[in-house]
Amino acid sequence: MPDVDHEMCALKVRILMSLTDDDLHGYEIMRRVEEQTDGRTRMGPGTLYSSIQALLDAGFIAEVASRGEEGLNDARRRYYRLTAAGRKAARDEAERLADVLRVARAKKILRGDHV
Amino acid sequence: MFETFCVLLLRLYPAGFQRAYGREAVQLMRDRARHERGFFVRIRLLLDLAIDLGVTSLHGFQSSKPLLAHIDGPPRFDVIHMHRPRPAALAVGMLTTILMFAAFTLLLQLEALPNAPAHLGKRSGFAMPGAGSNRSARQVTAANPEARHKLIAAIAANLKQRYVDRAIGQQLADALLARDKKGEYESLDMGTNFAARINRDIQTTSRALGIPRGVFVADVVYSARPLPAGPPPPMTEQMRERDRAMLLQQNCLFERIETLPRNVGYMKLTGFADATACQETTARAMASLNDAAALIVDLQDDGGGFGETALQIAGYLFDHPTFMYDPRPDSPVPARTASPISGNKLADKPVYVLTSSRTQSAAEYFVYNLKMLKRATVVGETTAGHQHSGAFHRINDHVGMGIQEAVPPDNPYPVKGWEVIGLEPDVKVSRAEAFEAARTPVEETVALPAVAQSPAFEVISIKPARSADPPNMRMRVLPNGDLNATAVPVLLLLQYAYDVPVNPSPRLSDLPGWRERYDIEAKAPANAVPFGLSESQKRGRMQGMIRGLLADRFKLVMRVEHKTMPVYALTVARGGPNLRKSTIAERDCIFDTGTPESCHNFIMGRGHPLNARAINMDDLAQYIENWTDLPVVNRTAISGLFAVETEGWTPMRLPPPPPGNPPAARFDDFPTIFTVLRKLGLELKQQEATVPVYTVKHIERPAGE
After folding, report:
1. Strands B474-477 and B483-489, sheet pairing
2. Whether B215 contacts B421, CB under 8 Å
3. Does B21 touch chain A (CB under 8 A)?
4. CA-based max dimension of chain A
5. Which is nearest to B44 in space by CA: B56, B33, B55?
6. What is the residue-wise DSSP string for A7-42?
7. Which residues have a Cβ under 8 Å from the Cβ of B229 and sit 6 or more positions away?
8. What is the mean pLDDT of residues B262-274?
9. How far apart are CA B464 and CA B627, in angstroms?
10. What does pLDDT average to over chain B?
11. Contacts (Cβ under 8 Å, ≥6 apart) of B568
12. pLDDT at B134 over 50
């Protein structure tokens, strides 16, 4: 059985990563995460919005009324933006994961042998 | 229909979820239903929805604050509990928060109470208390005119009473007070801008009074945090132990220590740690690079620290006690290095020091002395010019100043003023380019004196080749260092010894016109290639021995220069590398160039395909350079050994066929090297780089046995 808490954790990092360049709405976030993971991670609405809610509560993302250019907005949607704290948290987490990866490489426990 | 079904399913989600995100969820499902078409895709969508519904129903939905900050590290995503905290827990948490807030507020206020000016005393380290606090943007000093006049009067009084030349101190003080009287400081806030302006005015007046640029006079420092009110409390044993443990945990500020290709030692320091805690670590760090053929000391992020540690490291770079100039009067740092150090082999090795505008204080002391002693080549940016030699005085809670109170010791070197204006490097390049700018010449420097450092062949036999047929050409370096070559032209020896292409190249000129081939047998002395050396170290030794052979028997005189020219930079293509890790680790490599399957070797084939079991990116760049129209430099930043297997490719250039021989084979049916590399996730980009260029000044046919 997958570790649900662990999955939640990874998902939140993915969501933060998806918001690094643009303000996005829920469906766009879902698609970006799916692209980032080569289709391995598809979120249902419950998982997605629970994660978004947690990130909003943590101050890592913020809801924005619109995203700059008029033509890009859809009144039915809510848009989310990465905050400075969120960017820092994503960077810290990425660095931590990079460290884990470095150790994993050194220990040769990775599946496959591509860089 | 399908959309409606999905939307209906959403009604089964918890009520809280529907209230918070119901509308968005409906929109999301509509989007998915619209984009995810096809029977199986829709089955997958329904399955996703069912699982999601199950998980959400199981966990419930609510806004909750995740636990974020770990006390001992950066923020982490942690388990997010899905249970509401109990009211009692909330009440206790709130009460604790209020109590802690009140306690901290009280403590901070106590610390911020006004104190009398105090002399902080001298330190063993170079950093000044309060220095660096200019970074803070928060301006907390009062900005009323009376406070400002009082502050300027205090700065002036310090200059008058403490500056080493009382008459000049008086004039500096008068000039400052006159400017204040004229209202020149009225518009300034009382923070960093104020300190910068006062410093500028002190400097201007100093120049007018004949004090040369670069001589430290005084420096006003603003600190957003209240400056300590008196001398630092004496360190308890417990505090010392804690500091020591912290430093050891940070590896005594040795951020990286490694051996680069060609046996170049590299060490990066972020500061010079307290020698009382780190003397042993420093000794171990230097010992770990003891066998390096050259040393790069990276001080680009070295903010200074303890001169004793800088002196300890410098000690390894000399073979006799060497004077190191310290501008501070009564410095606690000894004047001479402790050289020679027993067992040390670095005293005669080339040293490159990397600097940046952040290199300061004790790091500048280190760089300056090595440069003045011509012991190191300094590469990078001008240093910060923060080697204060004055004593620090607190003026109020947020402002203090360093003043030159005593005459600095006589400086025997001609370059002066670096303490304030920074030290110019020998090779001026940006921070980002410094490493490469040092690495290229340092590797070359390592390679050249290798002739003297490497053992020489004991017995050399060179005979005209029995068969001058190119297919019989073989050259093999055996694991014990013996050289066994059949039908080789001298060019092949040059290629191995100097890492130059075998085909005509802008990197090697004035080759001899003769094309004789030779059978060569050269016997290495015992232990010429010791077992413990890395592959690159072994290769370096053999290159040295073959250079010796060329100098001895072919009377080769080679000139090397570094020229900036167009090159191909081997880089990682968009999408990242597609390289297969070799199954052979560097430590398991067999040093035997005659075995096609040994490390760092390519297996020859038609169209010189990239076939090898264990090569690194330097090997790859060097190999393809044999047939490209420009030199190739490795800029991939990929380390490690890889196995590659590609098809052949069309050479960009080939040597003209020998007279009377048929033209070279055609390679029109092969792809270009660009296509072949793209499959490995690599590419060649044309750019300029500085590369070693060799000119054969003299070479003659060998004299025989």
Report:
1. antiparallel
2. no
3. yes
4. 51
5. B33
6. HHHHHHHHHHHHTSSS-EEHHHHHHHHHHHTTT---
7. B115, B116, B118, B394
8. 88
9. 28
10. 80
11. B628, B630, B631, B632, B633, B684, B685, B686, B687
12. no
User: What span, in angstroms and rounded, lies between the C-alpha atoms of B362 and A9?
Assistant: 44
pLDDT of residue B593: 64
The per-residue pLDDT of chain A, averaged, comes to 79
Question: Looking at residue B159, what is its pLDDT?
Answer: 92
Q: Which of B79, B585, B425, B132 is nearest to A4 (CA)?
A: B79
Please name the residues in contact with B372: beta carbons below 8 A apart, sequence gap of 6 or more: B325, B413, B415
B639 touches A: beta carbon within 8 Å: no
Instruction: Give the list of residues 6+ apart from residue B643 with CB closer than 8 angstroms, or none.
Output: B580, B581, B582, B583, B612, B613, B614
Instruction: Give residue for tokens 């620290």.
Output: B305
| Minimum CA–CA partner of B54 in chain A | A46
Closest in A43, A76, A93 to B27, CB measured: A76
CA distance B574 to B590: 34
Least confident of A86-95, B83-92, B112-121: B112-121
- Nearest-CA neighbor of B444 among B561, B283, B533, B303? B561
Per the CB < 8 Å rule, is B21 touching A53? yes
8 Å CB contact of A53 and B79: no
Question: In chain B, whose CA is at the least distance from the CA of A7?
Answer: B79
Residue pLDDT, tens place only, A31-42: 899 888 888 888
Interface test with B, best of A49, A57, A102 (most B CBs within 10 A): A49
**Cα B338 off chain centre by:** 28
A4-107 classified as CATH 1.10.10.10: yes
Q: What CA–CA distance (Å, rounded) separates B321 from B309?
A: 15
**Contact with chain B for residue A63, Cβ under 8 A:** no
Segment holding B95, helix H or strand E: helix B87-111
| DSSP letter (8 states) at residue B270 | S
Classify B258 as helix, strand or coil: strand
Between A9, A45, A113, which is nearest B580 by CB?
Answer: A113
Q: Checking DSSP bridges between strand B377-380 and strand B427-428, what pairing results, if any? A: parallel
Q: Is the separation of the CB atoms in A26 and A53 below 8 Å?
A: no
Of B21, B52, B75, the CB nearest to A92: B75
To which residue do tokens 């206020």 refer?
A: B109
> Within the 9-48 window of chain A, which residues sit less than 8 Å (CB to CB) from chain B?
9, 12-13, 25-27, 30, 42-48
- Using a CB-CB cut-off of 8 Å, the residues of chain A touching B580 are 113-114
Give the start-to-end residue ranges of the domains of chain A.
4-107
Q: Which residues of chain B make contact with A115, given a CB cutoff of 8 A?
A: 576-577, 579, 581, 638, 640, 642
